[in-house]
Amino acid sequence: MNERAHIAIIGSGITGLSTAYSLVNKGCRDIVILEKGHLSSGASTRNGGGIRAQFLTEENIMLAKWSIERFKRLDKELNANFWFRQGGYLFVAESEEELLTLKKAANLQRGFDLGTKMIDCDGVQMIVPEMICKTVIGGSYRKDDGTLFPFPLLFAYAERLRAHGVAIETYCELKNVERSGNGFELSTTRGPIRVDMVLNAAGGWSREVGAMFGARLPTQPVSHQIMASEPLAPFLDPMVATLKDGFYMSQGARGELVGGITESGAHGNNPGKSTTDFCRQMSTRMISLFPRLSAARMLRQWAGFYDMSPDANPILDEAPNVDDLFVACGFSGHGFMISPAVGGFMACLMTGEKLPFSREPYRLTRFDLGRVSTEALVIG
Amino acid sequence: MPTRKAFVCLCEDVTMEELRSAIHRGFPDIEEIKRITGIGTGPCQGKQCLHTLRTLLAQETGMKLEDIPLTTLRPPAVPTSFGQWAAAKKEDVTR
C-alpha cells in the first residue's frame, strides 16, 4: 500500500465510489479507498435496488430527482449494464392516516415537477392487477421511478476508478487516526498512510469511524433483511411498497421477486444475521396481497442495514470541529438511489467548488439547532 | 482445472472462463465473484459449485485453500414455498 495519498475515502460502498468517480472527473486522482471487508461489503451489496424520487422532504427529493437523470446516462458512460428500469413505484395506503402522508408527499413533489399521481383503489388495481386490494384505500404512483441491479454499477465504478489510478484497498481496516500537520496519519491493518483529507463514507460504521477522528455523528445502523424468489413469469411492473409495515417488492429482469418488510427491534450492523422469522413474516404478508404466489418458492434471503440519521435525511458536510474531515452518511436506507447526486455534491464540497445544491439542509449542525424536517417515507 | 468452457455453477450457468475473468479483472474474492457472476445464487445456493470456486481461487491467487471461506450460509436450506413459510407458526421458526 502507498504511504501517501491526497484523499482517503473510508468505505468502498456506493457513496465512496460515486464520490471518488466525481473527484476523478474533476482531475483529482490521488485517492485511496480503504475498505475493511470485500468491495462494497456493507449495505451497498445488500440493498433492494429501489430507485424513487417520492419522498416527504425536499432534501431527499432534490437528491433523488437529480440522481434519476444521472442513472439514465451512467450506464453508457461506465460501459456497464446495471438494468436501470423505470417501471414505476407504487406506495399503497391502507388507512386514512397513511393516505394523508402520501397526499402530503405528493403535494410537496408537485413543486419539483415529478408527475407523482394520487390514485384510488381502482387505480392501484389497474397498475397491479395481481394484487388483492381488499385492505387498500389508495396510493401514490410515479411512473419514472424504478429499480436497478446494484452489483454491476459497483463493480463498474471500481474498475473505472482503478483504471484512473485510484487505489481501492480491500480488507484494510482503519485502526487509529492521528492529526499530523494539516492532514492525518491513518493506521490500518495493512500499514500506515498519510493523507491531507478524509471522507467518512463508512455507512453502517460511520459513527465509529467519526469517533476515531473526534467527530460525533448521530448515526445508528438498523438491521434489515431481504429475500429473492425463484424466477417467475413477469407480472409486476412497478416496485410496490406499503406504508403500514414497510413491505416492498419488485420483480427483476430475470423474473425474480426481491423484497423485504420491517422487523421490529432489529439493531446493529452485522450483515451475517439472518432469521427464519423474517421469512415467515415476509411470506405471510406477501401471500395476503398476492395469494397466487403461495406455491412460488423463496430461493434465498440475506441481511444488511440502514445507517439511520435522526431525521432520516443524509448528513453531507465537513465535520464542524475537525478540519479536512468530510462526512457523507446517515442515508437511512436511501444511499444507493441518491448516490450520483451525493457523489457530485461531496466532490464539490471537498474541492471547494460551487455546490449544485444548498448545503444548509444537509449540515450536521441541524440536529443541535433543531432545524430538522423528518423523512417519513422509509420502507423496509 | 478443466477447460475454460466447463460449467462450474449448473444453476446459474457460470463457466470457468467467467470465473477466471472476474479474478483477473481485479476481484479475487469469493464474495465479489459471487456478486459479479451470480455463482451460487441459484436453487442449490452454491452447494455444488462454491468448493470448486475455492479451489480455483487458491490456484489463481496462491492463497491457501483453508484461508478461503465459503459465502455466508442463510436460510432457506432448500427453496421453500411462500405458502409453507406463511403456514408456519412463529414458534416453529424461532429458536
Describe the protein's architecture and organization:
- The complex is a heterodimer of chains A (380) and B (95).
- Chain A is of the alpha/beta class.
- Chain A folds into 2 domains: 4-46 and 151-219 and 310-369, FAD/NAD(P)-binding domain (3-Layer(bba) Sandwich); 85-145 and 220-308, D-Amino Acid Oxidase, Chain A, domain 2.
- Helix content of chain A is 28%, strand content 26%.
- Chain A contains 9 helices and 18 strands.
- In chain A, strands 1, 2, 8, 9, 10, 11, 17 and 18 form an 8-stranded mixed sheet that branches. An 8-stranded mixed sheet of chain A has the order 5-6-4-13-14-15-12-16. In chain A, strands 3-7 form a two-stranded antiparallel ribbon.
- In chain A, strand 13 and strand 14 (248-251) form a beta hairpin.
- In chain A, helix 1 packs across helix 5 (150-163), helix 1 (14-25) packs across helix 8 (339-351) and helix 2 (58-78) crosses helix 8 (339-351).
- The longest helix of chain A is centred in the first third of the chain and has 21 residues, at 58-78.
- Chain B has a single domain (7-93), classed as BFD-like [2Fe-2S]-binding domain (Arc Repressor Mutant, subunit A, Orthogonal Bundle), CATH 1.10.10.
- Helix content of chain B is 41%, strand content 7%.
- Chain B contains 5 helices and 3 strands; from the N terminus they run E-E-H-H-H-E-H-H.
- Chain B has a two-stranded antiparallel sheet with strand order 1-2.
- The longest helix of chain B is centred in the middle third of the chain and has 12 residues, at 50-61.
- The N and C termini of chain B lie far apart (42 Å).
- The relative contact order of chain B is 0.15.
- The A-B interface holds A 37-39, 41, 45, 151, 154-155, 158-159, 162, 170, 228-230, 271-272, 274-277, 279-280, 282-284, 286-287, 293-303 and B 25-27, 29, 31-32, 35-36, 41-43, 45, 72, 74-76, 79-86, 88, 90, 92-94.
